[in-house]
Amino acid sequence: MMSAFDAFLCGLVYFFAIGNLPFVGLWSLQRPLVCGFIVGIILGDPLKGAMIGATINLVYLGFISAGGSMPADMALAGILGTAFAITGNLDATTALSLAVPIGLLGTIVWYGRMTLDPIFVHAADRYIEREEYHKIWRANVLFPQLMCFVMTVIPCGLAAYYGSAYILNFINLLSGNILTIFKVIGQMMPALGIGITLQYIFKGDARVFFFFGFVLAVYSKLSLLPLGVIAAIIAIIYVQLQPATKGGTLSE
């Protein structure tokens, strides 16, 4: 069972992940790989935290939040999934099978914020009506962030602190065939994330690059870094040649 301070830090990571603060959020701390690594640092096992976070991240490769909708809370999935895995000594696939439903429950926090935030818009209107322009920042920044802090740190911290013990009892209860089923489900989840991503990239001219990349990765035996460099170079060349293929002229 983790300490109360560690649980508070996990809640604080969740706040920074979804608080819409500058330089952190959707493309950084909200990703399970990143927040899982940070939770691993908090709990004293950054390597396992990064490995579990990376496994959970595979499910959310094709994650899109459009029009204010939130299909799943990948930050909460990454934080609590990693925390439960480290404290409960679970493997990555079992942690993944627990993290996905946690991510679905996390949408309650998002939609709760979206429901309550209009209150602060009306508060800003009242400041304007009273010509108290110096107070508008309270309604635009201070009050929403305070509400977000309460709605994220407290639930996530309590879940991390008390949930780990329940997860241990739950795992002991399910030990055997049922736990094996959870592991199999967890192993299938990354394929779902990769499949969703393929829906976006397996189109038009990109198809040939997909097969080329697959063959190159399998038969060249190169690591990810040189493969990434090769892919970037090919992408740059392709973009530069696009005007010529469409009847335009290449820029000097």
TrEMBL record:
- KW Cytoplasm (keyword) present: no
Where is this protein primarily located?
Answer: membrane
Any Pfam family from its record, for instance, is EII-Sor
Q: Which UniProt keywords apply?
A: Cell membrane, Membrane, Phosphotransferase system, Sugar transport, Transmembrane, Transmembrane helix, Transport
UniProt record, GO biological process: phosphoenolpyruvate-dependent sugar phosphotransferase system
Record bears the keyword Nucleotide-binding: no
GO CC annotation: plasma membrane
User: Domain of life, per the record?
Assistant: Bacteria
The membrane spanning regions, by residue number, are 7-23, 59-86, 92-112, 181-202, 209-239
Q: Where is the protein situated, by its record's location annotation?
A: Cell membrane
Topological relation to the membrane, as annotated: Multi-pass membrane protein
InterPro entries for the chain: GatZ_KbaZ_carbometab, PTS_IIC_man
Which portions of this protein are annotated as coiled-coil regions?
Answer: none
Q: What is this protein called?
A: PTS system, mannose-specific IIC component
Specify the species. Answer: Propionispora vibrioides
